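Reply to dn_fold:

You asked what the input looked like. This is it:
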Amino acid sequence: MKRIIWFIFMILIAVPAFAQDDEGGGGSDSGDFGDEGPATSIQSIPKVDPLADLRNWLARASAPPIEKSQEKPLKSLYDRQVKEMAKSFKTQFGVSLDSAIAAQSPARGRRGGAARPVDPAQSAEIARLSNQLSDRVIAALRMDQQAALRKYQSDQLRVKEVSLIKQKMKAAGITLTHEQESQIEAVYARKSRLRTLVIIDARGESYDKNITILNKQTTQRVVQVLSPTQIAVLSSANKAKTP
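and this is what came back:
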């Protein structure tokens, strides 16, 4: 059980929960498990230190490393959160959390396997609980550690979002001036800074509402950078893509 939850948790740290911050509000990011699916991969994973990958990501973020005195409290928090998550999930759906996670994987690559229907409600709850576990463990780090990690995650998101909006503009036939590109970069740099502060200030609790507000503010600021003609072209392109 703990191996499965930690495996999902580390995927979320490796690829931050971008879906909740996308301007379009859809889509999701997940690890690439290949054809066998996560359940098969999880079963082949030996018992590991639950803090190993967290240490790795702190290093990537150039954050101070986890000290020996932090290990026991962090592991205790992780164990407690996993138990609470499992109990909550079993109460809500009547099935164990680990079996539900295993059921999310496709049967491809397994002998005699057949595709199993995925329960959307269970999938959404697994994602929510996994995000919650990630947030609460990171929130238990020292402020200098979590601040550096959250900044790193927000910067990754900023690069992705700026690239995406430029692709959308180009696909719509909009040519941005150098000044407009600089202004859009500044808008998303602002969002990145505020996103980091919002998540840290939440202290491991939900911050979705504040992120939604920040997303709307960012969209409004981007629109202000565009000319009326560019806005009209982009609006028409978006309507044309809507089924």
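The mean pLDDT is 80.
Hope that clears it up.
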